[in-house]
Specification:
9 helices, mainly alpha, 213 residues, 2 domains
Length: 213
């Protein structure tokens, strides 16, 4: 099997994560995402800024986190941390997500007892919820647009690219529009995704061999 010179020299995303680095990063994400939208901040930090994960890796981790038991954000931190540096990465990511905010939640609960029902507090909470929803929508649009562009790119619209876009649209329609439960929907679409991944893995060596002449 031959690989073209462009592919051989193509830079790979650096994954220079460490235990301390992951703990500090996830602590920063948790402390700066007041009102929710933690997954959107994770996407911005890990995919857009550092390139430690690509869109497919992050989307897969997010889907798994949502269908697994427990808190979605903690599940996502475990999956991402383990993906980057193994078991220690999972521990660092979860600790970063939980430690700092836990102290803040305790302090906020004490303050809430004194100011519950205040108009300004209700306005702050409503604004935070709206911001979190906006962040999640923005992350979804960015991630979806990149997946679609990737499916349409390279050498024309391949069967793999069409299938990827079809699954994306089907997931949005079933969950976002028709309000089907997330877990059953993802589990039903998973065989299609696995088939596409298998088909794409078989096609890439053939394309590289063809390109290499």
């Amino acid at each position: 099997m031959k690989i073209s010179a462009v592919e051989a020299t193509e830079p790979r995303p650096p994954r220079s994560a460490s235990f301390a680095g992951l703990f500090l990063l996830f602590s920063k994400i948790a402390l700066s995402s007041f009102g929710g939208g933690v997954s959107a901040w994770m996407h911005a930090a890990l995919v857009e800024r550092r390139g430690w994960l690509d869109e497919t890796e992050f989307s897969s981790a997010l889907a798994l986190a949502r269908i697994m038991p427990g808190a979605n954000i903690v599940n996502l931190a475990v999956l991402i941390g383990h993906r980057l540096i193994g078991f220690s990465g999972a521990v660092a990511a979860v600790a970063g997500i939980l430690v700092g905010p836990s102290f803040i939640v305790v302090a906020a609960a004490i303050l809430y007892r004194h100011f519950a029902g205040a108009m300004i507090l209700d306005a702050v909470l409503a604004g935070a919820a709206a911001s979190a929803a906006g962040l999640l929508i923005g992350m979804g649009l960015k991630s979806s647009s990149r997946i679609v562009r990737k499916g349409l790119a390279s050498k024309g619209l391949t069967a793999h690219g069409v299938g990827t876009i079809a699954i994306l649209v089907a997931t949005f329609a079933l969950i976002g529009v028709l309000r089907f439960p997330t877990a059953p929907t993802v589990l039903c679409l998973m065989p299609c995704s696995l088939g596409l991944a298998w088909f794409g893995a078989r096609q890439r060596p053939m394309e590289r061999e063809y390109d290499g002449g």
